[in-house]
Amino acid sequence: MSSDALWCRHRLGQFFVLGTLTLVVAACSVSTSPQPVAVGKDECAGCGMTIEDAKFACEFITDKGRCFKFDDASCLFHYLHNNHVSDSTVAKIYVADYASPDSLIDITKASLVLGTEIHSPMNGGVAAFSNAKAATSFALKTKSIFLDTWKRLKVQH
User: In terms of Cα–Cα distance, which of 111, 106, 76, 72 is closest to 91?
Assistant: First the structure.
């Protein structure tokens, strides 16, 4: 076999190994992107009810890429607590933008409002906004509390 043929064979082997490794890495990567909530179809992982109000839908993605959907933030936080889900296994938490319910936003970037005048499915009373100004206005209108961090919400529930 000529040296050119050996070189080509060697390069083909390298490409094969590189291609295989790329496929393995791609297959093992975990998506932490929000998954759309199918209102009227998806069930709340906490209470088992069908998610009916998109304004209050939320979800968390595990470090393994599994998505758990909820009809209310209180269901989500009770689920995390009751099932002893550690912070290290939660990759992301997403909440629906109250002003634009088809949009799920990272809870760490959301402006949260907590109040008794917010009538969520499980009476958790939490509304999330991507816009802090809209959240502040909503909090004033509903005589609710504007939360400065989502961790305060976690403690409340």
Answer: 106
Query: What number of other Cβ atoms are within 10 A of residue 72's Cβ?
Result: 25
Query: CB burial class (10 A; 0-12, 13-18, 19+) of residue 109?
Result: exposed
Q: How far apart are CA 60 and CA 66, in angstroms?
A: 8
3-state secondary structure of 123: coil
Alpha carbon dihedral 65, 75, 97, 116, in 10-degree steps, equals -160
For residue 127, what is the enclosing H or E element?
strand 126-129
- Between CA 26 and CA 64 the distance in angstroms is 14
Strand, helix or coil for residue 24: helix
pLDDT tens for 36-93 read 999 999 999 999 999 999 999 999 999 999 999 999 999 999 999 999 999 999 999 9
CB contact at 8 A, 148 and 95 = no
Provide φ and ψ at 11, rounded to 5°. -65, -40
137: tokens are 């206005």
Helix (H) or strand (E) holding 137: helix 132-141
Phi, psi of 76 (to 5 degrees): -60, -50
